[in-house]
Amino acid sequence: MLHIWCPWCGEHREEEEFHPKGQAHIVRPVDPDACSDEEWGDYLFFRDNPRGVHRELWVHAAGCRKFFNVMRNTVSYEILETYRIGEQPKILAEVNVVALPKREESESVASDARRQAGGGA
Amino acid sequence: MQNYSGLSLLRHGISHHENWPRMWRTPTPKKSYDVIIIGGGGHGLGTAYYLAKEFGITNVAVVEKGWLGGGNTARNTTIVRSNYLWDEAAALFEHSMKLWEGLSQDLNYNVMFSQRGVLNLGHTLQDMRDIRRRVNANRLNGIDGEVLGARQVQDLVPMLDCSKNARYPILGASWQPRGGVARHDAVAWGFARAADALGVDILQQTEVTGFMIRDGQVYGVHTTRGDIEARTVGCVAAGNSGVLAGMAGLKLPLESHPLQALVSEPLKPVLDTVVMSNHVHGYISQSDKGDLVIGAGIDGYTGYGQRGSYSTIEHTLQAIVEMFPAFSRVRMNRQWGGIVDTTPDASPILSPTKVKGLWFNCGWGTGGFKATPGSAHVFAASLAKGRPHPLAAPFSIERFNTGALVDEHGAAGVAH
Q1: Do A46 and B251 touch (CB under 8 A)?
Q2: Eight-state DSSP code of residue A102
Q3: Closest C-alpha to B179, from B121, B127, B114
Q4: With an 8 Å Cβ cutoff, are B401 and A20 in contact?
Q5: Residue B356 burial by CB count (10 A; 0-12/13-18/19+): exposed, middle or buried?
Q6: CA B247 to CA B62: how far, in whole Å?
Q7: What pLDDT, in 10s, does the model give residues B335-345?
Q8: pTM here?
């Protein structure tokens, strides 16, 4: 069970309250009518599928119902960071292993400290 | 190769079964091969087998980073069926079903293929409309199928709760009598043994670390045991296909998700068919050993961890207990996860790539086991001839740019 820090609620919540929504930061084509079949197919169907750090979109479906971004390791399932829509992560994608903050420490973190991590499985 | 028969069993019985020969060799890699297959699961070993047997290409290596059948081949729920909706998919899966029916004899290895029938339950009016449509499509394609009402379902599976009081009452089902189960690791071992006997080198503990590509043509792979040359390379790496594609500078429309399964403690015979429900989302059969084999949905997030989340198990077991209230006290023995490579249209990819000589057989997602012999056969034909087999042609990577998708989300049976 993942414990995910919702950057809007400012709390750790259990995985079941959330839904993953796939890769984050997908840029819409500026002029969809001008796309070639190749560009349009790539936009619709081709996703990053890294073995390592991945940036993805989640929604707090059974909570505040807001979307946010998660940076997660797809092998260890460690959540490195969660951040609001429209923001960029503080950790660079190249960083593969980051020390996990302890779950017990999360209560002492101010609610606006958005750089938070989950306790993993 | 030692032929397996009643007589050989008797003969080895005299020496207390201590002198059975090894099923395959452990060769050192040669400098070059005609074809390299990456991935030693059922599909990869099967491809090597059919290359050697049907197309006379025996100078083949199967490169496997772990052990044979250690990935999804041994991590599925062993269900075999061919009741897919669209002509392209139906033809491919039915081709596979026909090969299953003669596989044990063909390989001289008992894969324990048991055609005990597969039920797909319908719980809503829309489910039943979809079931009717799919069964009609199946029959037009020469695939067996029947639409059953709730009472007929109850007759087939007395343990199933078909009452109107259920939270999601069962209205009926589609029934494919030729469907069933097979012993999954026997499939990998049977193909490995038969391929090895025809001269295929099976290289375990050999991980591919890169491709050798010159002027857009592949001419070998880098591995942890040195470089191996071949001008035809077939990648059959399931969940890790995207990682391999990345090594060749390619991108595939795949997302890798954990898919879980679990088995219970062994029980006396209670369930002699396969029961699947898309709606409450669980599927179950009983193995010859007696344990209930239960499948779950995929985890929503992508992952390579070969384990899944507890909430998914909980949902699955809720569904099983909903269907079979009598199983509520059954204890689960083991649980595991496999990494499935899902495509946007829930159909596989059997395709050449922009790199000449480099082919991919992937994207089987949540339902690859049933396709093992068929997938291996058409992929071997494609590699041998250098152009896609007619059954593989609709499953090219290009379909994601042309839009000619083969949407099998309904028949795939697992929501993604």
Answers
A1: yes
A2: P
A3: B114
A4: no
A5: middle
A6: 18
A7: 999 999 999 99
A8: 0.91
